[in-house]
What does this fold into?
Amino acid sequence: MEDTYWLNPVRRGWKAARTNALPGLVIALVALGVLVGYHQWPAFHDLLEVVRGWKLRFGFAFSALSTAVFGGLLPVFFRLIPAETRKDPQWRSLPFFVGFWAYKGIEVDALYRLQAWTFGDTTDVWVVTVKVFIDQFIFCPIWAVPTMMLGYLWKECGFSVAGVRERLGRRWYLTRCLPLLIANLGVWVPAVAIIYSLPLALQLPVQNLVLCLFVLLVMMLTREEGD
It folds into this structure.
């Protein structure tokens, strides 16, 4: 019985990881293109320097607004483009998604700043490796994924704390968080390695691009599978 409790979440996570393989490859290539373009294409470098200037000027306000747009606003609007989904009540949750991802933007920016302060704002292989490890194997399992799962579950329960408690169960981390962690590793480990290879002020903007692409690509694949 105990083996089943462990194996079922792992199997679900592995199945989702295979589904995310194509989005992960596309996203990694896009992120790699941003990194190469920043160093090799002067016009693109200048464009990113403008974004970098906005980030340096507005700080956490930029992080909150940009992540709210790329993580919350754009995916919801994309979902509502097909005629059959325009009556979807998802748009009513738009304030939640915008507010939730605005908070997450501040949280991720704080992580990037803390790591830069601790290990340095350099692109040495050792520094990038350590940052990726802390990001994906400490921060995500302990905080990022559980809070994201709880936030979305709270919305699904009609913003009822009692409803969340009822649906969680005793093994909530194993059944809800572990599959998500496994599914996202193939996407986010290479993406985060590229993100940490950029200057600090560009890490959050590129993370937002990766976040938006990931959500949109998964939505497209889900829709195609349902057709």
Q: What stands out?
A: Residues 119 and 127 are 6 Å apart (CA to CA). Residues 2-218 form one domain.
